[in-house]
């Protein structure tokens, strides 16, 4: 039986990766798939659709921050079209069932704790078409392997805080009038940043999480990754891309208000500024250019 593991964001990914390795130890009839197994260079969306069509069971590792993400809802909807609802399970890491949107709220949930994971294993065992254990045997195997999974359900990444307590903004470049967007494939570290005509989508929406006094992580609502200077290079023109938050100074930014109401967005690790250049989004020393200034436009009702 092939199990699809859906995730979005750092903590969700940690749990999905732990389940990928742990589930086949408990139920040998199970193989698990996570989207990070799709190799660079293939048609990512087509490969994902193919995997979804081949899966017999779906587990979605959910947090308060990711349960409304477009890709989570796309994957859940796609699985719901080909599977009985009893074979799709939201796995709740830090939330209650009442927080779930449709279609996730229509599935039988499991909490990411001992009782919830035990129930999930029994559901997987019953869903196996070719080979399953007796319930008593499945419970004995679960009890044996649960201590290996339990500590991995705790996040190793520094939390960025709940999105409900942070403002949502579009970042509009003063020179070009275009919006900073999280381009590329969701969930893949190192994807580029670009500027596009503002459309109001999640790709153009950013959360500001205060990490230290005067410094913020600037996190994409679309990818759950933050604005990051490639490596830790202080060089002029170093590339700016997206990466999982790792508490590095190259991921921390201060906001410097200008007289016209725009902002310079300054990197903590080198003192250079987020800028639009002919070669893409780079870090640049302050030159007074309008390409280094950004309007922070609040997004209300989000």
Kindly list the characteristics that best describe this protein:
elongated; 23% helix; six-stranded antiparallel beta sheet; 2 domains; five-stranded parallel beta sheet; Rossmann fold; 302 residues; alpha/beta; Trefoil (Acidic Fibroblast Growth Factor, subunit A)
Could you characterize the architecture of this molecule?
It is a single chain. This protein is of the alpha/beta class. The chain folds into 2 domains: 152 residues, Rossmann fold; 136 residues, Trefoil (Acidic Fibroblast Growth Factor, subunit A), CATH 2.80.10.50. Helices cover 23% and strands 27% of the residues. It is elongated. About 3% of the residues have low confidence.
Low-confidence stretches: 157-166
Strand order of the largest sheet: 10-9-6-17-14-13
* Level-1 CATH class name of the largest domain: Alpha Beta
Total strand segments = 17
């Amino acid at each position: 039986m092939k199990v699809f593991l859906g995730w979005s964001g750092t903590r969700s990914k940690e749990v999905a990766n732990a389940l990928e390795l742990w589930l086949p130890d408990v139920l040998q009839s199970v193989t698990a798939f996570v989207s990070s197994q799709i190799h660079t260079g293939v048609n990512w969306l087509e490969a994902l659709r193919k995997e979804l069509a081949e899966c017999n069971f779906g587990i979605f590792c959910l947090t308060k921050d990711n349960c409304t993400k477009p890709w989570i809802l796309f994957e859940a909807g796609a699985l719901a079209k080909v599977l009985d609802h009893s074979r799709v399970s939201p796995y709740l890491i830090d939330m209650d069932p009442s927080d779930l949107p449709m279609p996730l709220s229509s599935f039988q949930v499991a909490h990411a704790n001992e009782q919830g994971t035990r129930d999930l294993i029994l559901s997987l065992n019953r869903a196996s078409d070719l080979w399953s254990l007796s319930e008593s045997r499945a419970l004995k195997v679960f009890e044996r392997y649960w201590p290996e999974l339990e500590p991995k359900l705790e996040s190793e990444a520094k939390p960025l805080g709940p999105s409900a307590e942070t403002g949502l903004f579009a970042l509009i470049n003063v020179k070009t009038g275009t919006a900073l967007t999280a381009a590329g494939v969701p969930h893949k570290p190192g994807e580029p940043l670009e500027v596009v005509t503002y459309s109001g989508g999640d790709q153009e929406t950013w959360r500001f999480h205060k990490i230290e006094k005067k410094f913020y992580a600037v996190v994409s609502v679309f990818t759950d990754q933050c604005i990051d200077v490639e490596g830790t290079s202080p060089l002029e023109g170093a590339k700016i891309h997206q990466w999982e938050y790792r508490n590095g100074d190259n991921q921390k930014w201060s906001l410097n208000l200008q007289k016209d109401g725009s902002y310079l967005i300054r990197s903590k690790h080198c003192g250079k500024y987020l800028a639009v250049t002919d070669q893409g989004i780079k870090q640049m020393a302050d030159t007074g250019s309008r390409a280094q200034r950004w309007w922070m436009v609040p997004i209300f009702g989000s």
